[in-house]
Structure formats: structure tokens, C-alpha cells
Design brief:
By secondary structure, the chain is mainly α. The chain has helices at 3-20, 25-32, 37-56, 69-88, 92-118, 121-153, 169-182, 196-212, 216-231, 235-268, 282-293, 322-352, 362-374, 384-398, 410-428, and strands at 63-65, 405-407.
């Protein structure tokens, strides 16, 4: 099999899996006998990577990006420190499960880089834009249909009832903060200008959902990331980004007032305008985490250990802050290396914006910025599809420029397949594990504070 054919198969299956796990998750989970639409997302991720690794063993010639020595050194430190944290944790099995899953995400990154190497860049970028444009259209068709049904039934609705296919609307918000910037693609590429109107309308509908679901952190993430990244763009592109963002936000705000506030109030005499001013318990979780960190400051309490932390103010399985989560679970050593690596990556990409060649990836870089900022308020680095989408976007940006490529040996792909299959098997052994508690605070699976 040629690498180009492999790449197309991987991306098509990823796209299909994304649809099955979102728009059709309830129907698909019933079809395969999974009890909820959260676990089906995780299972799709696991089974897909097993298939991709098997398929890779049949590819004739594989090229992978050369990894700089600095990255290898940082990765080694993270691996060793993570292993030590796992062994020293109170639940080394589940800490190991999290480490293995993170390893699978790293393998996903490698597969995506291989795919992007084999495909023509402009077609790939445009294909990604079109996919998320149509994904958004299909999502909002369902959203508006549900809204009309509530109108006809004269029933009020809460923040979760209009978005279909997610246990919690926040899981969709996590995807939104990375999808919305991708929809700015036509405004950075004159050859795609006929898609500008469609993008404006769809971005506006995304804002309707953000406002209706009271996603304050998601909205703030989009605003901050747009402002920060826009500052480093040339004046012409900065104006396009800011003007388009404001226009879409204002149009979305008007639609929100009409569809969510005025019409329900007229039909049902229901007031949907509620301004939340609390932190939803996040600040309490953050204070608890920071106070606890000093007990195991260097290597933390172990991966996934926040799920069973004693004396938490809330029963959440993660603190809704990626920085605090890494510090609590992995300690200062791993946290320092990861934070340094992220800033090093972002700094390099921002500097690249001075070059017109790299400016074409601005929407994808904006998506990464937005996702990382939202991870400071939500579980972006915890939930299955937001993890994969973030990994995909990083691979999409990383494969541009930098070091060259080298050919991967055949025995390497076989070892990778065996390792992937073993890791996936260990993770699946934790599904419905007897130690899992029946509580809807997901970390790896829905059922279980630990899992």
C-alpha cells in the first residue's frame, strides 16, 4: 500500500469516527451495545488507532519527521518522571492506564504527521476546513430542529437539551473553541472567498450555542486567543481577523436574542436570560489542588490521581485546569518540562507568522491557542475527542517547516503495532472495572471517579 492511500484511509476513518461519536453517538452506542455516548467516543479512539497501526505495517514507504535532540531529551524526562509518579501513586494501575493512553495519543500524533507528509498541503488544509464546515452545518440543523420542537411543545429548555450527542454540553464547547477558528480559513485565502458568507453564518451559529449554553470560559478563550494571535499578524490580516470575529459575534448575539430569549419568552412566557456569576466550584477545586500540591511537589500524586483525591470540595475527576492538573498529578519536574515545551512550540510558531508562507496556517494555530486557553477552565486535555482534535491540529501545524524527514523501517511499524495493541488491551481491561464507582464524573470512562 502506498503512503498516500494509507493517509486518505486514516483521515476518512477519523472523519467518520468523529461523526459517529458526535452527531450519531446515541444511535451508534445503542447499535454496538455501549451504555452511553461518552464511552463510545473513547472506544472509537482506541479501536481506530489499533486499525491504523495494523494498516501501517502494509505501507511500503513511510516518511516521518526528524525529531530534534531537545524534543527527545524533554520527552525522556517526561517519561521517566511520569513512570516514577505512577509507581509512587496510591493507584499505580490506573495511573499506568493514563500513561498508556497518553502514549496512544502520541502514536496518533505520529500517524497524523505521516498522513500529512503524504498529502498535498493546500488540498489537505482546505479539506479540513470543508469537513468542519459541514460538520457544523449538520450539527446546527439538529440544533435548530430541537429548538423548533421545543417551540411547538411550548416547553422550556436548559443548556444541555439542544445539543445532541454529548453527555454534557461542555464537551461540545471544548470542540467549538477549536472548530470556530478553522472556519476563518476563507478570510486568509483569497481563492476561497466564495465560502466567506457560509463561514460567517456558521461562526455566528456557534456563538448562539456558546451564549445559550453559558460557556463563559469558551467565549473568553476565543476572545483572548484572537486578540493575542492577531497582535502578531500583519496589519491587513489582523484587521480581517478582528473585523470578521466582531461581525460574527454581533450577528450571533442578535440570533441568540431572537431565538433563545425573545421567542421563548413570547411563546411560553419563559425567561432564559440568566447571567451566571459563580465559578461553578472551579475556584474551590483550584485552591484545594494548590494547597495539596506541597505534599508531593516534585513528582505529584500520580497520573489520574485527582480522581480519587480525598477531601475535594467537589467530586469532579479533574480540576478543570490543565496547568493545575499537571502540577497536582505529575509534579513540578514534569510540569516544568511540559510548560517549557508548550511555550517553546508556541513561540516558534508565532515567530513564523512573520513569514507569509506560514501565515496560511493561522486558523489552525488560532485553534490550538484557543484550545489551550480553554483547558485552563475545562477538561480539554481529558475528554476523548477534544484530546484527539488538539493532537490533530498540533500535527497539522508541526509538519510545516523545521527538520527534515527520514524513512521508517518495516520492523519499526511491526513493533509499533504490537505496542499499540498491548496498550489498547490494557486500557480496555479497565472498562467496567470492579473498582470503578457508578458516578457521572468521567475521566477515562463515564462510570467511575477513578476510571
Amino acid at each position: 500500500m502506498e503512503s498516500k492511500a494509507y493517509s486518505k484511509i486514516v483521515l476518512v476513518i477519523c472523519g467518520a469516527g468523529f461523526l459517529l461519536g458526535t452527531l450519531f453517538s446515541i444511535n451508534f452506542s445503542r447499535l454496538v451495545g455501549v451504555s452511553n455516548e461518552y464511552d463510545i467516543k473513547r472506544l472509537i479512539v482506541i479501536f481506530c488507532i489499533c486499525f491504523f497501526s495494523l494498516l501501517l505495517t502494509f505501507v511500503k514507504s513511510i516518511e516521518f519527521k526528524k525529531v530534534p535532540i531537545k524534543i527527545k531529551l524533554l520527552g525522556t524526562i517526561i517519561l521517566l518522571a511520569g513512570l516514577y509518579s505512577s509507581f509512587m501513586s496510591k493507584n499505580p494501575f490506573f495511573s499506568g492506564i493514563e500513561l498508556i493512553y497518553n502514549g496512544l495519543l502520541l502514536i496518533y500524533f505520529a500517524f497524523f504527521v505521516i498522513c500529512m507528509r503524504a498529502l498535498e498541503k493546500n488540498k489537505l488544509y482546505f479539506g479540513v476546513y470543508l469537513y468542519f464546515l459541514f460538520f457544523s452545518i449538520f450539527t446546527f440543523v439538529k440544533y435548530l430542529l430541537f429548538l423548533v420542537f421545543f417551540y411547538f411543545d411550548a416547553k422550556s429548555f436548559n443548556i444541555h437539551e439542544l445539543v445532541y450527542g454529548y453527555v454534557n454540553v461542555r464537551f461540545f464547547n471544548q470542540l467549538q473553541v477549536m472548530i470556530i477558528p478553522i472556519l476563518f480559513w476563507p478570510f486568509f485565502h483569497p481563492e476561497c472567498k466564495r465560502y466567506k458568507l457560509a463561514s460567517i453564518i456558521i461562526i455566528s451559529l456557534h456563538w448562539v450555542v456558546l451564549l445559550q449554553s453559558e460557556a463563559r470560559g469558551a467565549a473568553l478563550s476565543l476572545i483572548i486567543s484572537t486578540g493575542v494571535l492577531g497582535y502578531f499578524l500583519p496589519s491587513e490580516k489582523r484587521f480581517k481577523l478582528f473585523f470578521t470575529s466582531v461581525k460574527a459575534f454581533l450577528f450571533g448575539g442578535v440570533l441568540w436574542l431572537i431565538l433563545i430569549i425573545i421567542i421563548p419568552n413570547w411563546l411560553m412566557n419563559v425567561e432564559n436570560l440568566q447571567l451566571r456569576t459563580g465559578s461553578s466550584g472551579r475556584i474551590d477545586l483550584w485552591f484545594y489542588s494548590v494547597k495539596s500540591i506541597v505534599d508531593n511537589i516534585w513528582f505529584g500524586f500520580g497520573p489520574m490521581s485527582f480522581a480519587w483525591a480525598e477531601g475535594k470540595p467537589l467530586y469532579n475527576a479533574h480540576p478543570h485546569n490543565s496547568v493545575i492538573q499537571l502540577l497536582y498529578e505529575y509534579g513540578v519536574v514534569t510540569w516544568s518540562v511540559i510548560v517549557f515545551g508548550v511555550f517553546y512550540f508556541l513561540r516558534g510558531k508565532i515567530q513564523g507568522l512573520k513569514c507569509e508562507y506560514f501565515q496560511k496556517t493561522t486558523p489552525f494555530l488560532l485553534s490550538i491557542f484557543s484550545g489551550l486557553i480553554y483547558s485552563l477552565f475545562s477538561g480539554v486535555i481529558v475528554m476523548p475527542f477534544s484530546q484527539i482534535l488538539l493532537v490533530f491540529l498540533v500535527a497539522l501545524v508541526c509538519h510545516e517547516g523545521g527538520a527534515g524527514y527520514y524513512k521508517v523501517r518495516k520492523n519499526t511499524t511491526v513493533i509499533l503495532f504490537i505496542s499499540t495493541l498491548t496498550g489498547a488491551g490494557i486500557i480496555l481491561s479497565s472498562y467496567h472495572h470492579e473498582q470503578l464507582l457508578p458516578a457521572l464524573f468521567p475521566r477515562l470512562w463515564v462510570n467511575g471517579l477513578i476510571g
